[in-house]
Amino acid sequence: MKLLTLNFLTCAIKSCKTSPASFPLHPRDAELEIVEADVNLAFLQNILPRLMWAELRTIASELGLPTLPEDIPEREALVEGRGEGEGEGEGGEQIPSQTAKDLHRVLLETCIQEGKLVCGNCGHEYAVKEGVANFLLPGHLV
Amino acid sequence: MSRPEDTLPPDLFYNDTESRKYTTSSRIQTIQATMTHRALSLLHLTTPSLILDIGCGSGLSGEILSLPSSSGTPGGPHTWIGLDISSSMLSIALEKDVTGDLFLADAGQGVPFRPGTFDAALSISAIQWLCNAETSEESPEGRLKRFFGGLYASLRRGGRAVCQFYPKNDAQKRMVSAAAVKAGFGAGLLEDDPGTKNAKTYLVLTVGGGELDGDITGVVRGLEGVDVVDQRRGGKGKGAKRGVEQKGSKAWIVRKKEQMERKGKVVKASSKYTGRKRRIAF
Lengths: 142, 282
Ligand SMILES: C[S@@+](CC[C@H](N)C(=O)[O-])C[C@H]1O[C@@H](n2cnc3c(N)ncnc32)[C@H](O)[C@@H]1O
Ligand SMILES: [Zn+2]
Description:
The complex is a heterodimer.
Chain A: H1 3-6, E1 26-34, H2 41-47, H3 53-62, H4 98-109, E2 110-118, E3 125-129, E4 132-134
Antiparallel strand pairs in A: 1-2, 2-3, 3-4
Chain B: H1 10-13, H2 16-24, H3 26-43, E1 50-54, H4 60-65, E2 79-84, H5 87-95, E3 101-104, E4 118-124, H6 140-154, E5 155-165, H7 170-182, E6 186-192, E7 200-206, H8 216-220, E8 226-228, H9 238-244, H10 250-262
The structure holds S-adenosylmethionine and zinc ion (ZN).
Residues 11, 13, 16, 22, 119, 121-122, 124 of chain A line the site of zinc ion (ZN).
């Protein structure tokens, strides 16, 4: 499971829906893997305003990853400055900046393969096996 | 042939054998791919998006979502997250190394993502399963309510969802669309090859706000054969709605009948023939 996904995932238990502590879920005994993928700049630009940055930083630090910058990058910072004289030529592909590549690395290539995700509100543990999280709930918790 | 939904719960029906048989059948691959493309054309995505696939199975749709627009996926490549209740189906998806994240989950229990997560959602040949409840504590209505309620919240404003499904009958089709409307969606039903054994039903759903402002007619305008099931009052699309729900069309007749019924008048029960042109008999 990508860290991107973890930035959107909440506890599935009904009584947790209204509790702020049910997001983000906290990884425990997590095994990480880097799964390489092509940088998709337009996707990063699309998703950027929807990220919960403080929570992403928390998760990164819980996983022992390098500390993320305090503030979320600006949209403009995702694009490399274009060469001189080229102007705003049409059809020119935008080039992803180092910031975009770093963001891509964290969000789309860093994956939890094994471990658990724990709700900060109710303590429920969701198992992750081969990258797949088990969100099936026993009937009484639905 | 009996419907699989009437024989076993989905996680038991889609066991290892059935899941493999399903995924390797070239006939099924072709049909599912065609329906995925149809759903994508209804979603109108113009940029790489975050998409939820409900009942993703072995990832037949997901593989298409991950393709670039140059390979025929509008707005692609997209990033997708798939939910499925069958671990056998998901194992096959893992074997195929799909790029989407997978969850073992029952859509009838809800959609565990924070509000406004997804640009769009699609579901191919899955939600008819929600009309079955496997235990006495559950009801199809309750499962549909949790599913559509969760789906509605998890989509961003202006987002869309398309669910192709195989309703058992008209009552089930109505139950499913009513649950979607109740959750807040603007809804339309689209039927391809109606009346044949290849009939395909698509439930097209929009979330208010954003560029569409929940005006389902914006999605279905110009598409033939779409019946608007959105019955909310006071929406902006009032004038435009007429254009889609044409006077004399089945949707129009059904709505008129409902109005008359509410006034206590006796109306003829709607049937699959309602609103059809009558052939002139010589
Ligand atoms: C006909 S298959 C379609 C799979 C995939 N969408 C495709 O087009 O190839 C139906 C899928 O729905 C899944 N399903 C049924 N009920 C479900 C539920 N309540 N929650 C999640 N998935 C479900 C089944 O496990 C199965 O994988
Ligand atoms: Zn919880």
